Amino acid sequence: MRSEPAPFQVAALYRFARIADREAVRDRLEAVCSANGVRGTLLVAHEGLNGTIAGSEAGVAGVIAAIHALPGFDRLELKYSTATGAPFHRLKVRIKAEIVTMGEPDIDPVSDAGTYVSAQDWNALIADPATIVIDTRNDYEVAVGAFEGAIQPNTRSFRDFPDWVRGEGRALFDGPTPPKVAMYCTGGIRCEKATAFLKAEGIEDVHHLEGGILRYLEDIPEAESLWRGECFVFDERVAVGHGLEQGTHSLCRGCRMPVSPEGRLSPLYVEGVSCGACHQDRTEDQRRAYAERHRQVEIAAGQGVAHIGADAAQSRGANKRSL
Length: 323
What we know:
By secondary structure, this protein is α/β, with parallel strands linked by helices. The chain has helices spanning 22-35, 57-68, 109-112, 119-127, 139-142, 161-166, 170-173, 189-200, 212-219, 284-302, 308-318, and strands spanning 8-16, 39-45, 48-55, 77-83, 91-95, 115-117, 131-135, 145-147, 180-184, 206-209, 227-229, 231-232, 239-240, 250-251, 258-259. 32% of the residues lie in helices and 21% in strands.
């Protein structure tokens, strides 16, 4: 009897810590990942590391041990999951200006971030009438789910968050009594960096959800939860609910945006091709190309093999977003 292949272990990680020699760290991580048969993407910047890798349990453990050995990386924000198929076909270790792009080079999330708040203490913080709760994610993520009562900047990308704070958001902070601010995002990296930005703008009482929404949904029972809806994630699950159970949303392969069960009822939704949000923005030639790609993906799935085109499309979409 043929044994089932071992599942892939997936590790999503980040840490704000100073890196002086990005090239040396990149070269070290490339060598360790290659030696351990690990693939995925790691971003190296002066402000830290961010990325997702996958491989055997032993291989991923070897890479994590190498990261822990780097100065300042004895602690990581780290989330593990498993996959039955290879999540990545390539290894990419890239040098970047930022590990999550805000476009504010003078802020320092290494030393000036706000106060971590655990999932267990989050409900009490955001239920306090003196607390302003701000969602640091983007508009397409918010449409899938959010914390009850949170303020939504409705940004198109994280780069837009500073402009929102300095413009529309300024009225929230300029009252006679400085507010207590609680911010959150999917996995913790954006809200952590956002707290450093707010402190640079003179807002001192700033807090962020440790481990992000994913840690909250994993640790807090649904009966006690203040989360409403599902949480958009940056992989083929598309969205998760409490207990990190896979949600009901799917992904439009035309625009890489989440589609609800109601959205799939639209006559403009064609699986693998388009949804109501992007149908009018695609030419007939594009839709035909998407349809052919979807046909090839379905053939490959029926044969039990991965389709490189599907993986490349996923990577292009993921590279536009961050946790």
